[in-house]
Amino acid sequence: MGAPPSRRRPAAGNIERLISLTLRTGVLLSVAVMFAGIAVTFAHHPDYFHSRPALGELTQSREIFANTTGAVARGVREMRGQSIAMLGILLLIATPVVRVAISVVLFAVQRDRRYVLITAVVLALLLTSLMSGLGE
Amino acid sequence: MTPLLFVLIVVGISFVAGFLGALLGLGGGLIVVPVLTLLLHVDIRLAIGASIISVIATSSGAAAAYVREHLANIRVAMFLELGTASGAIVGAYLAGLVHPRWLYILFGAMLGYSAVAMLRGIHATPSDEPPGALSDWLRLNGAYFDHATGERVEYPVRRPLLGLGMMFGAGTVSGLLGVGSGALKVPAMDLGMGLPMKVSTATSNLMIGVTAAASAGLYFARGQIDPFIAAPVALGVLAGALLGSRALKHVSSERLRRLFVVVLVIVSVHMIWKGVL
Fold it and tell me: In A, residues 71-100, which contact B (CB 8 Å cutoff)?
């Protein structure tokens, strides 16, 4: 009762700061992991610094790259540079999804039912799409 | 070309794409794909896979700054993401049914139309049309601080349902072509809903990430994401987007709008050319 309204309901500015923080954290984390992945790739393959044919295997290959989270996790455990870079990419893909998920919680805390509903529907659509993609 | 040189060139090109993308509300993918395929002879499927990752990178990198500076309208973004997310799912489904040639031509034509509409908009007087009951109910109307003029600008949001419909279209294109389709999102808000250009650009950047994340899952599952290409593209684009988002507040809306029209025309010709070829 005694607390000012701004204490009970987080101001819109707080929501914006948290969303900004989520995006920045996800981006910084994925940058660090992707950079490490590329660095490890070059460390394991010194010929990449001067060999021309090596590029063909990396960019023209018709083989399918790691396309399950399990394959990426195995590669990371074996310290494979490309798998580490892929982990960074997966973190980047997850960033907007986490942003929407956090928004649902923030609007709920604000008791903004309209936006809890809107954001929850967006999250459901996003997860449905991701799941159907990973399930192919 | 050695792998080292390849990585350095890809990072450099992606940096430029990210900078322009952040300034214009584009994902940068429309610049990255032609350069990767035409200049560096990368497999188109892998180039598109890298593009969709760069789209998420641009969006998140630029949006973090825009949201903090209250330039992006979070409520408008959340409301319109209903349209882009469902559109992206429909688009991803349609992708298997329609020949890509027609999609390129259709997209190019839409971009050309947007450019013409935008050019006309430069000389248009602001509409006096009231925001309407739905905008009030959703509390979409907002305000931002314009660094170029040093004034706080309050703006009403008009025709939210028209915007939602246009976003469904933008989401469908995004799911079909693997692009962020910021080139469609910005006109939808700027021309369709009467938002200030800077707010449209910033809000578009915030929304693009969600749309692209939905398609990225599919590209990953299809094995179209080569980490050796996608990671340097994402790193370059992120650095460029960071710089671009800082430059945005110092550029005047009018100049930005003209620059945007030029980019729309170039991309439009590129898309139609690709479809006809």
Answer: 82-83, 85-86, 88-90, 92-97, 99-100
Spatial neighbors of B274 by CB under 8 A, at least 6 apart, are B104, B108
- What's the whole-number mean pLDDT along residues A97-101? 92
pLDDT in tens, A21-74: 988 899 899 999 999 999 998 888 888 877 777 777 666 655 556 677 788 888
The residue extents of the domains of chain B are 3-276
Q: Do A59 and B92 touch (CB under 8 A)?
A: no
Q: Are the beta carbons of B2 and B228 closer than 8 angstroms?
A: no
Which of A 22-51 lie inside 8 A of B, CB atoms?
A: 23-24, 26-27, 30-31, 34-35, 37-38, 41-42, 45, 48-51
Beta bridge mates, B153: B144
Query: Are B81 and A58 in contact (CB < 8 Å)?
Result: no
Q: Where are the domains of chain A?
A: 13-134
User: Does the beta-carbon distance from A59 to B227 stay under 8 Å?
Assistant: no
First to last CA, chain B: 28
Token output for B98: 């329609």
B71 CB near a chain A CB, below 8 Å? no
Q: For B160-196, what is each residue's pLDDT tens digit?
A: 888 899 899 888 887 777 777 776 787 788 878 888 8
Instruction: Kindly state whether B209 is in contact with chain A, defined as any CB-CB distance less than 8 angstroms.
Output: yes
| Cross-chain residue pair B74–A67, CB shorter than 8 Å | no
- Exposure class string for A74-101: b at 16+ Cβ within 10 A, else e: ebbeeebbbbbbbbbbbbbbbbbbebbb
Which uninterrupted H or E stretch holds A97?
helix A81-109
Question: Both tokens of residue B177?
Answer: 């072509």
Determine the Cα–Cα distance for residues B230 and A69; give it in Å rounded to an integer.
Answer: 17
Cα separation of A122 and B35, whole Å? 33
Distance from C-alpha of B204 to C-alpha of B73, rounded to nearest angstrom: 9
- For residue B206, which of B163, B155, B162, B241 has the smallest C-alpha distance? B241
**CA–CA dist A96, A3 (Å, integer):** 34
